[in-house]
Design brief:
By secondary structure, the protein is an alpha+beta fold. It contains three helices and six strands. It has a three-stranded antiparallel beta sheet with strand order 1-2-3, with no helix packed on it. A three-stranded antiparallel beta sheet has the order 4-6-5. The radius of gyration is 18 Å and the shape is globular.
Length: 98
C-alpha cells in the first residue's frame, strides 16, 4: 500500500537577479538549488505558442515554414522572446500588405 506523499516545503523570496536589474522570485526547494521564477530567456515551443495565442501544432508548423525562428540546445528547440516579437512583426507586415 502506497503512503501519501507530503509536499516538500520551499522557501521563496523576492529578490533581484544579481546580474540583472530585473526583479523576480527565487525559490529554494528543500535540499535543492535556487530556481529563478522571473522572465525566462528561452521558451519551450509550447510556451511560445501560449504567448502567441496559437495552438502547439500551429507553432510547429510556423517553425517548419521558417516563419517562427528557434534555437537548438541538444535536441530541444527553444524560442527566445525576440524571435516571438519578430514573428508578431511579420504578422503585422503581412496584415498591412493584404
Amino acid at each position: 500500500m502506497a503512503t501519501p506523499r507530503t509536499p516538500q516545503p520551499s522557501l521563496c523570496v523576492s529578490d533581484p537577479l544579481p546580474t540583472s536589474d530585473a526583479e523576480g522570485e527565487v525559490c529554494v526547494p528543500e535540499g535543492g538549488a535556487a530556481v529563478f521564477l522571473g522572465e525566462h530567456r528561452l521558451h519551450r515551443v509550447e510556451v511560445a505558442a501560449v504567448y502567441l495565442n496559437i495552438k502547439r501544432t500551429k507553432a510547429y508548423e510556423e517553425i517548419r515554414l521558417g516563419r517562427l525562428r528557434t534555437v537548438r540546445i541538444g535536441r530541444r528547440r527553444l524560442v527566445p522572446p525576440e524571435y516571438i516579437d519578430d514573428y508578431v512583426e511579420l504578422l503585422k507586415r503581412e496584415a498591412e500588405a493584404a
